[in-house]
Amino acid sequence: MDLIFILLMLLGLLIGIFAWYRDRSEKDKRFSWLSYASLLISLFLILTMYSTRGSFLIYTVAIGSPLSLMLCGYTLFKRREKKIMAGIGLILSLISTGIVFIIGTFVVTNN
């Protein structure tokens, strides 16, 4: 289980480094609504994971984690976009995805 979590973190780090390297020469960067949305959705998923129980939690995190990963990835590779908020959102969504994998594994295997 720890290997999956470590691989997810390394994947997020590599995506962030590649996005920064790709756009390092761009001028006039700014935050757009995509940056704010990627960070807020990731924060919402983390808060939902620790504050609710039951089927709402399962559906919200199972649908929200891949959605957040895609939104953060798109925002990271968008030109003229500052990367810090999308990077933080990517790390938070990878944490929530790792937790979903770990909990899902224990629920499926009944251990």
Automatic annotation (TrEMBL):
The lineage of its organism: Bacteria, Bacillati, Bacillota, Bacilli, Bacillales. This is Uncharacterized protein. The chain crosses the membrane at residues 6-21, 33-50, 56-77, 84-108. It comes from the Bacteria. It comes from Fictibacillus phosphorivorans. Keywords: Membrane, Transmembrane, Transmembrane helix. The keyword Transmembrane applies.
